[in-house]
Amino acid sequence: MNKRVVITGGAVVSPLGSNWEDISIKLKSETNCIIRMDEWDRYKGLNTRLAAPAVWDKPGYSRKKTRGMGRVALMAVHATDMALEKAGLIDHPVLTSGDAGVSYGSSTGNVSALLDFYSMLTDDNVQGITATTYIKSMPQTCAVNIGVYYGLQGRILTSNTACTSGSISIGLGYESIRDGKQTVMICGGAEELGPANAAVFDTLFATSTRNDAPGSTPSPFDKNRDGLVIGEGAGTLILEEYEHAKARGARIYAELVGFGTNTDGSHITQPNKDTMEKALHLALESADLEPADIDYVNGHGTATTHGDIAESQATARCFGRPVPYSTLKSYIGHTLGACGAIEAWLTINMMNEGWFAPNLNLEELDPLCGELDYIGSGGREMQPEYVMTNNFAFGGINTSLILKRTGN
Known about the structure:
- The chain is α/β, with parallel strands linked by helices.
- It is 33% helix and 20% strand.
- It is built from 13 helices and 16 strands.
- The chain has helices at 20-29, 63-66, 71-87, 111-123, 133-137, 141-150, 165-178, 195-202, 242-247, 273-287, 305-319, 329-332, 339-353, and strands at 5-13, 35-36, 50-52, 100-105, 156-159, 184-191, 230-231, 233-241, 254-263, 296-298, 324-326, 355-356, 373-374, 380-381, 386-393, 397-404.
- The strands form three sheets. An eleven-stranded mixed sheet has the order 5-4-6-8-1-9-16-15-10-11-13, sandwiched between helices.
- Helix 3 crosses helix 6, helix 7 packs across helix 13 (339-353) and helix 10 (273-287) packs across helix 11 (305-319).
- It is globular.
């Protein structure tokens, strides 16, 4: 018999900050977090100068605890620390019992540490390489550092699947508890900001170049959008088996009831609306729900032409009606491996508050986008029972999570 999986804690490090009360105010102000990165002027041929850095204070952890952490892992641990505190699990014996694990992802590890390896190859000198260089740079750095920091002895899973790293990690954690393999899973994703991240999309002419008007971009689903903006941050959700959470009197923020994932199998960078739609149906089947049961969808919404059109058409076909729909990337940019986790936690908070943020900079809907109820200025007050949050990545990787409001 499948176990029920609930979310008893969560936290983010993001361009909007970390505290939900502050984040909610910023969302309702309808202004984004995009800034011009003047320091990127040094990179010849880089078209974009826009980004959304995380707003956070580096925690005062001991050097011994953090010497194997680059910026990306440090953000992940900080988000996890706040999430575990919210869940009431700091120093709880379940963490070191073998019944708690971690499922965490990022697109890559710490770039500064990677550069030390590159310097060795170009300068023929290993002087910059230390005992922790690889630990900081390896793709599984977030998951491993979280596991060591909290003494976890359960399973460790890591997903390095670009923009679905966070959401797939949550889904894998969900399945671990649902199938009775673990009682608690620390799940999420992180990504640090750097010009290399921007260059990945810049070379594909997929970045916004409104460098002198950062407040006007990104503009997902808009006819006149000109590309995405890179962000950074980390998001952690604490997933817990329902009976365990209930027995210890934990607050339950939401129940995770469905997860679907698949791949297009056709093109590395061009999305396929048919398989995207299938991923949404897989999540619905997992949750034993019908499309009519979903009251709101948090979209991926990168503000790229191919992505916006394919995603919105897939969603419209899945639901067969104009379901309420918005994306948080219009506020914080694209946080890559972190986006699935950050957006899931913010969606949970919007669901519990009964208010959903609008799509920013959506002035004229692209007629090629699907027929959906794109939430406009002022946001939307709703009391949904079920919400869905979706992410899609290079490689044709598609994910969908379904969350249920618990009223707790």
